[in-house]
Design goal:
The chain is built from nine helices and ten strands. With 238 residues, it is an alpha+beta fold.
């Protein structure tokens, strides 16, 4: 197969996860020797100085960002990830944590709104996971929180969950921070390839609640919510 290297490159990129080499051999109908040669070529292409590296481990291959650029990646991506956590999504996560295992219809009955997007997002963020089906009409899927949920909320176990009202207050505060950040994103003018701050007539930021906890910050002063944890040395491509 003349373009095998390019095909394998596309497969690994599209997956975003580790791809077993044996699957590539089986599905593409090529030899292990040919795949290994293509992987070796890709490892050379995505060398140490490249922004993307090719990882090979346990018979699998996967693209990952170069750990040399961990700080810069975090500075750009952490603010984006924060905005994925709207108040609705966080409230759904909290309800699932307290009521687990729980079905989507049960969650929607509590919130009185559709929770399709929240469930989808929480699954993508690996904060919840299907844990079976309820013995009821339609056999609806049951959901429970994951270790990633505990990690993001700095909990050792579900037993460490705070009082429900307290957690909801923390979520409301977090949502206010996200909304304030969204306002800041609109308070810049784009001129001649650089951002400049507007004049005094710009809408002032809303003040935080009086009892808000002292936020953590990155080295450049960017505020981080409590559930954001240190990233691993290698950040996987999504």
């Amino acid at each position: 197969m003349s373009n095998l290297t390019n095909i394998i490159e596309a497969i690994i990129f599209a997956s975003g996860e580790a791809v077993p080499v044996k699957y590539i051999v089986e599905k593409l109908g090529c030899s292990l020797k040919e795949v290994n040669a293509a992987v070796a070529e890709l490892k050379e292409k995505y060398g140490e100085d490249c922004g993307i590296n090719l990882l090979t481990f346990n018979g699998k291959v996967q693209f990952a960002s170069n750990p040399k650029f961990k700080q810069q990646i975090s500075e750009v991506l952490i603010p984006i990830k924060e905005k994925e956590f709207t108040k609705t999504i966080l409230e759904c996560a909290a309800i699932i944590a307290y009521k687990q295992p729980i079905t989507k219809p049960e969650l929607e009955e509590i919130r009185q709104v559709s929770c399709d997007y929240a469930i989808h997002t929480l699954l993508e963020l690996e904060m919840i996971v299907p844990c079976g089906r309820k013995d009821a009409v339609g056999k609806p899927i049951l959901y429970a929180t994951t270790d990633n949920f505990l990690k993001r909320f700095k909990l050792n176990s579900i037993d460490d969950l705070p009082d429900y009202d307290e957690l909801m207050a923390q979520i409301a505060e977090l949502n206010n921070q996200i909304l304030n950040d969204d306002e800041d994103d609109g308070n810049y003018l784009y001129k001649k390839d650089e951002y400049v701050e507007p004049e005094a007539e710009a809408k002032p930021k809303r003040s935080a609640p009086e009892k808000a906890p002292e936020p953590k910050t990155t080295e450049d002063g960017y505020e981080l919510p409590d559930f954001i944890s240190d990233d691993d040395d290698v950040i996987k491509i999504d």
